Every structure is written in C-alpha cells, then in structure tokens.
Amino acid sequence: MKQFKGTRKRGLVLTPAGLQRLQAAILAVEKTQNKGDRFTLEELRVRMNVSTKTLSRLWSLNTGVDQKTLKLCFSAFNLELSSEDYTILNEPNNTQSDKSLSLSVDTEEVNLSQSLYTDLFVNQDREELENLWSYPDGPVALDSPFYVDRPPIEELVYREVTQPGSVIWIRAPREMGKSSLVLRLLAFAQMQGYHTVNLNCNQIDASCLTDLNKLLRCLCWRVATELGIDPKLNDNWNEEIGCKFSYMLYLKSYLLKQIESPVVFVLNDVDSFFEHPEIAQELFACFRSWYEAARQDTNLQMLRLVVVYSTEVYVWQDINHSPLNIGLPIRLSEFTKGQVKYLAQRHGLNWSADKEVKQLMSLVGGHPALIRIGLYYLCCQAITLENLIEEAIANGGIYRYHLWRHWSILQEKPHLAKAYAEVVTKKENISLNPVEAHKLESLGLIRYEGDRIVPRCELYRAYFEKQLSTIEK
Length: 473
Description:
Elements: E1 12-14, H1 16-33, H2 41-48, H3 52-60, H4 67-75, E2 86-88, H5 107-122, H6 126-130, H7 153-161, E3 167-171, H8 178-191, E4 195-200, H9 212-226, H10 243-255, E5 263-268, H11 271-274, H12 277-293, E6 303-309, E7 328-331, H13 337-346, H14 355-364, H15 368-380, H16 385-395, H17 400-412, H18 414-425, H19 434-443, E8 446-449, E9 452-455, H20 458-468
Parallel strand pairs: 3-6, 3-7, 4-5, 5-6
Antiparallel strand pairs: 1-2, 8-9
Helix pairs in contact: 3-7, 7-8, 9-10, 14-16, 16-20, 18-19, 18-20
C-alpha cells in the first residue's frame, strides 16, 4: 500500500487478513508459552507495550491507530507488518468527545483521511461498489463499510465491559443502531477471550414473565447452556430459601465457578419485562443485588451484564432502588451532518458540498435507519434525491413500510395516537402527559427542542398529519 506523507496517529485499521494473521500468531504463542490459556487484556497490553485504550481501538476494526502501534503489536508476536495487514480509515469528526478521554481527532488527520477516503471509495468502479450494497435491514455486519462510529460510545462500552462485574445500559428507539453496537461489543469481548451470551427477551415464554422463579431459572439455564455447562438447576436451586437467593447462589457457587474467563451476558429487548411491573422490579432488583455483591466477590465479577432497551422505565417509584443508577448508561443519538456525509461517501456518492446532506436530513433528520434506506435507494435504484423527498412527503415513498409499522402501533393505542396528533398538527408549544410523551419518544416519534415537543423529523410530521387527521379529537 502506498504510504502517504503526513498520515498521523489513529489513521489505520487492520484488514480481515491482518486481523486473522495477528490472531493466529497470538494463538500460537498462547499454546507454546501460556499452556494454551488465552492472554488477558492486561497481559496483551504489557506484551505489546501499548495501552488498553489502544488495544480497544485495534480490536474494534473501525477506529484507527498509527502505523507505529501496528508494528509494535505485530512485532510482539514475531510478525512483520505488511501493506496487506492494514488499510487507511476515514474517521469523521462526528461528535465532540469528552476531552478528559482524549478522544478528539486532529483536524489535519480528518482532512487527510477524508481525501484518502474519496480516492478509495468514491472513485471505485460501480460494479465493485454494487457488491457491497444490500438492503439495510437489521444490524450492520461486522465487515460492512457502512457502520458509522459515534465517539466516544464505542470506546466507552469496550472499556467498561473489561471491568469486573460491570453493567452497561444501552437505550435508544428501534432502528437507531443498538443491535449494530452490541454486535461490535460482542466481537470485542470475544477478542479478549471472553464468553458471550446474547439473549433476545422476546424469545422468553410469556409464562415466565409472570413468574419470577421461572424467569430466573430460564435465564440461568440459557447462560449455562451457552457456556456448555450442564445446568443442573434442580440440584442447585432451593426454592425454600427463595428464588432470588437461589439465583445468586447458583451464579456464585455453581455456574461462574466453572469458568476461567468472564461472561458477557446481553439481554436484548427487555422492554417486554416492563409490561409486567412487579416482575420487572423483582428481576432488576436481582441484578442490582448481584452488581453490589460483585464489588467483593471475585466469582460474581466474572459476569458482565449488558441490558438493551428502548422504552422509558416507570416501574421504579423509589429511585434509590432503581437499577438504572448503577453501571454505565449509554443513549444512542442521531447521526450528525458529518456522519451522514461520511456514510454517503461510503456509498460512492460524491457529496463534496453540504447541499445534498442538508436536503436528506431536512426530510429524515439524522435517523440512522432512514438515512441508510435513503442512501441505498439513491445508489441502487433509478431515483434522484429530489424525487425521493417528493414521494416521501406525498405518500411515504421508500419509507412507507417503516411508517406503516409506526402507524399500526398508534392504531392499537388510541390515546397515544391522539397525543401524537396534537404534536404534528399544532404549531405552538404543547404540553403532553409525561408518560405519553416518554412513550412517543421511546418509539422514536418525537424529540425535544428545549422544552418544546416536536415530531422527530419532517417525514413523520407530513405523513402522520394526514394519517391522524381522521382521528376524532
């Protein structure tokens, strides 16, 4: 690969081939020098002579490091870095990061990587780009060029999951990127040699959601099975002492005692629990008890919990007993103009000026899924940006299936629909019942401008103003 003068730190990422080569070398050294045991993050840090923050960047495959760092990491395992092992990354200056975390990107680096990126993507043959295009449905694949970092979020979750007994709360409306972030968090955890368990709570039987004992046994069985451990629930569960105490003892004295590396347990879509407030309170009280006990218990510290949800939580009347004031809270926001421009270039669109970015965002804001869908159709279908906006305002256009899903939810909840009708039809500031406002925000239908409640984007305002006009007020 041609070397560019002036390339500064955090400009390179491993290619899949480079990552595979480095992993193979690490595995070989583990077998010969570490009795086959996986190196811990601290052991890798010392061996490679880099910081844990730099290792987090290296394993993420979407946050760059400098060439000197890559050479250090490879030479630590008797490898010589070659041009096939890395590629140049464009790191957009998409958000202003906390200065205390030292995550800001040098302006010169951004400008350089931006121009390099234009050479590498915008000027590719259309046939080559078409091989990368697929309809944006579900999480962004790990090897996809269409994932957009939202600093400092990725680095924060990578760092937190390495902490003993940690808890991470990831909240955002549907299609805002939660699953894509979780996918990368799990990949990072696996790179550390951790076990991972990813559970979609919608798969849990309804009968478990009304019986705490059955729910806790279900969760323990799932973790044990994923770890390849015989659950033996009946042998290690004493209902006479209560299911919450049995759950704690099961984790501490049976399950976690049998593993040598941490377990990252992801609970996706826990919103279904909130429909059963009493069970939700008891379940998350268990999580809180485990979190507090893990401060002193090394076995419990092996478990790292990640909770993913979209609905605002109302089941805890006493904030002192809420689990949401423990662990790391992460809330995903919309894309910025810089991130949208970056993603457009990744699709091969030469949006050098901000005109097209502003046009698309004037319709859908920075909503990640709506931006991705729009860029897909602009690249893969014979449609112009002007036609896309015109058809979307008229009848939903390419976004009609997304809009229909929201419409069906509102039809099932007449009171919520009437509240939203107020939002999309009234020009002046309105006040809503706080519960209804939070539900609308959790669905992603509204946002706050200071104290004002407004539709999430112009697309929602135009579409739902027509749809909701038939509702009797």
